């Protein structure tokens, strides 16, 4: 079990979504990333979808250039490797890529990879994972919190899994909370036992982050976008990032 504190990667897709409603170039995606990094964020995440509804190709290039000024911080590019993701990986060679099984018109990420033999995904993903690793890029697979599925992620060659946490966030402060939380704890334990790194993300917030990390020791990174950017509209980027870092510290203080 790792004793290192969980890293915070800020997903800035929603900053780009607001910018794209006008043609003024504001708010700036790169400025948002810079302010978050200055406040202590350990990394920046983007998910450039094929329709460019938020992050656009030039944003990924601009952010890759920015991240060169922040050695030791992580640049994580998410997306479906069957669509446009691999072009970005080959050109940018980020610290990490997260493979997400989204369809092109999907509203938001809402499920993890099916790695069962009948799906065919394992055979398709294996050479893509190997290619990324040959480029020096760590590979994380977006996965549902199924402890039994962690072995399949290991076999296909992933370095990490990112647990899809929407069901946890929805259950927070409901009667089913402990049952759902236990499932995530078991999935984390199964991954750690296999020497898989564990990330987590989707609908994590200041209200539920500490509880999650306390129950799931071993989570190395959380990727948070929607709630963090929403909080930043009220508090500002710096204060918001510092408060998420406080939530992480609070989890480890126990």
Folded structure, characterized:
The protein has eleven helices and eight strands. With about 250 residues, it is of the alpha/beta class. The chain has one domain: TIM Barrel. Strands 1-2-3-4-5-6-7-8 form an eight-stranded parallel β-barrel, surrounded by eight helices. Helix 5 (about 120-135) links the parallel strand 4 and strand 5. The longest helix has 17 residues, at about 175-195. The protein is globular, with a radius of gyration of 17 Å. The mean pLDDT is about 95.
Tally the structural domains: 1
Class derived from helix and strand content: alpha/beta
Gap between N and C termini: 16 Å
State the helical fraction. 40-55%
Number of DSSP E strands: 8
Indicate the CATH topology. TIM Barrel
- How big is the Rg? 17 Å
Task: Provide the CATH superfamily.
Answer: Aldolase class I
* Helix/strand order: EHHEHEHEHEHEHHEHEHH
Question: Taking all residues together, what is the mean pLDDT?
Answer: 94
Strand order of the largest sheet: 1-2-3-4-5-6-7-8
Question: Main attributes?
Answer:
globular; TIM Barrel; alpha/beta; single chain; 254 residues
What is this entry, summarized?
With 254 residues, the chain is α/β, with parallel strands linked by helices. It is built from 11 helices and 8 strands. Helix 2 (29-38) runs parallel beside helix 3.
Write the layout of secondary structure elements.
Elements: E1 7-11, H1 13-19, H2 29-38, E2 43-46, H3 57-67, E3 74-79, H4 85-92, E4 96-99, H5 121-134, E5 138-143, H6 150-156, E6 160-164, H7 166-171, H8 177-193, E7 197-201, H9 209-215, E8 219-224, H10 226-235, H11 237-253
């Amino acid at each position: 079990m790792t004793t290192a504190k969980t890293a915070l990667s800020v997903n800035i897709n929603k900053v780009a979504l607001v910018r794209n409603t006008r043609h003024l170039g504001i708010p700036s995606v790169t400025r948002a990333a810079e302010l978050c990094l200055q406040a202590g964020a350990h990394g920046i995440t983007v998910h450039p979808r094929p329709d460019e509804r938020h992050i656009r190709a030039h944003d990924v290039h601009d952010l890759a250039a920015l991240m060169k000024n922040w050695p030791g911080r992580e640049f994580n590019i998410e997306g479906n490797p069957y669509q446009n993701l691999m072009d970005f990986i080959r050109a940018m060679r980020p610290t990490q890529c997260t493979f997400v099984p989204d369809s092109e018109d999907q509203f938001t990420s809402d499920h993890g990879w099916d790695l069962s033999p009948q799906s065919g995904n394992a055979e398709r993903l294996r050479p893509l994972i190997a290619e990324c690793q040959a480029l020096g890029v760590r590979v994380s697979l977006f996965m549902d919190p199924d402890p039994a599925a962690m072995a399949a992620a290991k076999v296909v060659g992933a370095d990490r899994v990112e647990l899809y946490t929407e069901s946890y966030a929805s259950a927070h402060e409901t009667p089913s909370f402990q049952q759902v939380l236990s499932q995530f704890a078991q999935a984390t334990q199964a991954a750690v036992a296999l020497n898989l790194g564990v990330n987590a993300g989707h609908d994590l917030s200041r209200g539920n982050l500490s509880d999650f990390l306390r129950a799931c020791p071993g989570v190395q990174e959380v990727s948070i976008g929607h709630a963090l950017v929403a909080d930043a509209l009220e508090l500002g980027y710096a204060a918001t990032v510092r408060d998420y870092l406080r939530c992480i510290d609070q989890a480890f203080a126990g």
